[in-house]
Design a protein that fits this description.
Blueprint (H helix, E strand, L loop, with lengths): L5 E4 L9 H16 L3 E6 L11 H12 L8 E2 L4 H13 L3 E4 L3 H7 L2 E2 L2 E2 L17 E4 L5 E6 L3 E6 H4 L3 E4 L7 H11 L4 E5 L6 H10 L6 E5 L1 E3 L20 H11 L13 H11 L10 E6 L5 E3 L1
Parallel strand pairs: 1-2, 2-3, 11-12, 13-14
Antiparallel strand pairs: 4-7, 5-6, 7-10, 8-9, 14-15
Bound molecules: glutamic acid (GLU).
Length: 308
């Protein structure tokens, strides 16, 4: 049987959607369409303290307004705790995961910088600590290169132990780590292709390693450049990126296509939404996107985006 393309879009409700989110939605959706595949929607609501009230619900209405259609039911990570716990228990039983009581202060004192803050040296690896409700769970990683070919960024290589150390699957505050949830959900949903922002490129070797440990198959990856402001800061809630505007869908979809190097014709800025989507579906070509992790853009007075 030929396996069918399954893509997805997986926003976190820690902020409202902005142009960078729209680009990830557009690129993953058009890639799935091009392959006549499915496109799933998953809400990554793993971190209630950081959640913005109403964000999840707004994702569904905004995506519908833009004309996105997803397949099947929306998956909410907040409802998947039991499944994550089952996988964690299995890893713990096999000795691949251990409990860790090191605080940020300890990591800071160790002073080892890594690709994602501090590198963890594995202090608690052999301590066999009990779960006192305040321990994190870490996955042991090997001293070995993990590499893969990204559909846009090309060859990626990382040594998890040297650049990161054993990483957290469940946080000390009891919340699930993104790395665990994303791997389990993509596998359980049968996702074959992941298209997302290049800010997650450094997480991919972790996810691929976890897939190997869990005997899940590896999806294909495409990491699109993220947009940043003139100071080089990624568009995000923290850098106060403007959120998507209601009633201006055509212009924003046009901008997303433009920022994805698709060269949409100028006259389509004033087309209707169906016409712009029809153009996008026929002309979409991921090969036009350059292998950059980030590109600087400016936002004009009429809210039009330009490359800097
Ligand atoms: N939830 C992540 C985000 O909003 C995306 C996760 C993914 O695509 O793997 O940045």
């Amino acid at each position: 049987m030929q396996s069918r393309y399954v893509g997805r879009f997986a926003p976190s409700p820690t902020g409202l959607l902005h142009m960078g989110s729209l680009m990830a939605a557009v690129a993953s959706f058009l890639e799935a369409q091009r392959s006549n595949g499915l496109w799933l929607l998953r809400i990554e609501d793993l971190d209630p303290p950081r959640e913005v009230a109403g964000a999840s619900a707004s994702f569904l209405s905004i995506l519908s307004r833009f004309g996105f259609v997803w397949d099947g039911d929306v998956l909410y990570q907040s409802r998947r705790s039991e499944r994550y716990a089952e996988v964690l228990a299995e890893l713990l039983k096999n000795g691949q995961v251990y409990r860790c009581q090191c605080t940020r202060k300890v990591l800071l004192a160790d002073g080892l910088r890594g690709i994602d803050g501090f590198r963890y040296v594995g202090r608690c690896r052999d301590s066999f600590l009990p779960d006192n409700g305040q321990v994190a769970y870490r996955l042991k990683v090997p001293d070995m290169e993990i590499d893969f070919l990204d559909g846009i960024q090309g060859f990626v290589r990382q040594n998890l132990q040297q650049e990161l150390g054993d990483f957290v699957l469940r946080r000390a505050d009891g919340f699930w780590a993104y790395q665990l949830a994303v791997v389990i959900d993509d596998a359980d949903s049968g996702v074959t292709h992941i298209v997302r922002g290049a800010d997650l490129l450094d997480s991919t070797p972790r996810q691929r390693y976890l897939q190997s440990v869990l005997a899940f198959s590896h999806p294909e990856y495409m990491h699109i450049p993220v947009i940043s402001n003139a100071q080089g800061e990624k568009f995000s809630k923290q850098t106060l990126a403007p959120t998507l505007r209601e009633g201006d869908e055509v212009q924003q979809l046009w901008d997303a296509l433009y920022l994805l190097w698709q060269n949409p014709p100028a006259e389509l800025r004033r087309a209707d939404l169906a016409e712009l989507w029809a153009w996008a579906k026929t002309h979409w070509h991921s090969g036009l996107i350059p292998p950059k992790r980030s590109v600087a853009v400016t936002l004009g007075q009429n809210f039009e985006y330009k490359f800097l």
